């Protein structure tokens, strides 16, 4: 009788332990946009890692939507287990394409990001609502030997245009290290977007001069956002100036 009771108690303890065991947290894949690089996610990465999330800040090539999405898709394919895809700016169009065909991508997060519908480009959406001033802030295009041009933000205008709520010294470093995007990438039309099938979340600032807040609100509503965070006065790099708010939303999407 004693042995039977002990076995029952042990089995109960094992089952109880199994019941309370937490599932593995999804991997967060962060995709930067034009004029930024992977280091723009540093503040967000620090918070997510502290909270136990595996994180990959992918180096978005910024060459074309199809090329960049294929690269991010390969990154996702290399990850075992669930994934939350997060895109900033042009990176939003990239994740909208890259998530297609991956059952392990569970949700999408758009951080001051484009969420085009089929047949739309970043350039189309940027001009859909008034308020964007990126065109006037661009430096002279850099001609590429293979054809086409690279676009940069004029370093003297970078702080005001791109990162107005970031300290000037930090913005100057970001301006010098900015990654160019091809003009062709900004005009390439989107295919069928993954946000039509996957839950999505949005966060953006009212001080965004690259993508007007009205455009970001329109895209969030159209995508059926599960949760939208609007940060008063935040610039286009809300993940740099407000990493906690961005990380908090990503963690909600991860649940």
UniProtKB/TrEMBL annotation:
Q: Which domain of life is it from?
A: Bacteria
Pfam families in UniProt: Abhydrolase_6
Q: So which residues are the signal peptide here?
A: 1-21
The GO terms describing molecular function are:
hydrolase activity
Q: Which SUPFAM superfamilies match?
A: alpha/beta-Hydrolases
Q: Does the keyword Oxidoreductase apply?
A: no
The answer to whether keyword Magnesium applies is no
Q: Which InterPro entries match?
A: AB_hydrolase_1, AB_hydrolase_fold, Sec-Metab_Biosynth_Hydrolase
Q: Which residues form the AB hydrolase-1 domain?
A: 28-248
**Keyword terms:** Hydrolase, Signal
Concerning PANTHER family, the annotation shows: AB HYDROLASE-1 DOMAIN-CONTAINING PROTEIN-RELATED, ESTERASE_LIPASE_THIOESTERASE DOMAIN-CONTAINING PROTEIN
What is the recorded name of this protein? Answer: Alpha/beta hydrolase
